[in-house]
Design goal:
With about 525 residues, the protein is mostly helical. The chain has 23 helices and no strands. GO terms for molecular function: transmembrane transporter activity.
Length: about 525
Amino acid sequence: MAQAQVPHPPLEGAQLVIGTIAVSLAVFMNVLDTSIANVSIPSISGDLGVSSDQGTWVITSFAVANAISVPLTGWLTERIGQVRLFMASIILFVISSWMCGLAPTLPFLLASRVLQGAVAGPMIPLSQTLLLASYPRAKAPMALSMWAMTTLIAPVAGPILGGWISDNISWPWIFYVNIPVGIVAAAATWAIFRNRDSVIRKAPIDGVGLALLITWVGSLQIMLDKGKDLDWFSSTTVVVLALTAVIALAFFIVWELTAEHPVVDLSLFSKRNFTGGTVALSIGYGLYFGNLVLLPLWLQTDIGYTATQAGLVMAPVGLFAVLLSPLTGKFLPRTDPRYIATASFLVFALCFWMRSRYTTGVDTYSLLAPTLIQGIGMAGFFIPLVSITLSGLPGNRIPAASGLSNFVRIMCGGIGTSIFQTAWDHRTIMHHAQLTEQANAYNPVFDHSMQQLGATGFSQPQAFGLFNTMATQQAAQLGVNDLFFVSAGIFVALIALIWVTKPERAGGDAGAAAAAAH
């Protein structure tokens, strides 16, 4: 973000420690909320009386609101000041978290999550700005590595904490835990940074572009979320939403390419490195996040895992990610980032291929092994791709490039969740129909199985009911396996996009790069 900042000396001693902890707590709270609800969807859905696929709107509503607010960070910073905006973001995040916990109905919860996602947008890029300004330039890599550790640990802690809270307390507390953390972060931030704010000026805002952005992104996400319930394009509502999204997107592209102060600088897509890096990063993130929601949901609804157990299955992804990320940062300047990104995508493909071979009797080791290996891919996922995306851009364009790349990535995360949920339902229905086609008296295997069940004391309706339950579980298993297999294939195909780019060896802006990465 282009900010006119007053030059402040680096922090020292206790002030530096407290400032780092304050910023890290805010980031931890923010990133935690992108994953803490994933394993709690069945609990939330059951308590509010809605289906699990409606429950996933709790995740997508946050992601979309977050994506829309990110491009506004630069403008808001110039109008309010980076410290005041960061403080306001933390305080409003705490208030919206409290509202989420109090939610008596799904619409109230979704509205609260939209507010939470919107106010969370500026928090991560501004945390990066404040942290880098607190350290001497020579120690910027250390500051970034500490910041990256926080953003890697939070998604791992989210499913574990969310699962334990859902099983042992109640789901509202996955939001209430933000309140004490946010209060401490806000108090410490104000104590350390209140006299280190940026210069405020009246910057112009692209109101038309912002309205079009909200219209097309919101229409697209609502269409994806409601499509299954409304039977897709046989519904007038879905058709209207689709047309609205397409028309608003077309006007948005034309407007942003001609506006004097665009909210999103779409001309960046004329750069090969930016386009290849952003598309590969965003689709890869959409696949990763969609599977991050799908796996615990499948474990709880079809395999009989508790929320805590599902969270623990997701936990090992952070082990190698935390251990290897500093090494990635160390070796990146010495090697071609395309090699590291390619290796990362191959690791992701391997993990999803391993998961595509799951059965309904899957054991704990088979669940944990791919998750553990996935951490290796995570360590080489963000940093090299952001390095490629920003490669060759002049310094004055890096803030806009960071914001746009971040916007596309977060949006793809929300869309990926909706697509995976819908695709799983469709594949499950298809497989269930194929399995029950075999349930007839002319199939000797099925007939023999029914006779055996009858011999053990089952009535015919009970025997058919048992078969249907087993077929439903098996259909869900086959459906989730299909999505894992397709994800593996897409990750392999995305490698071609990585090699379309030609990254230039340059110093770049580490702070902007890390902000874009997260």
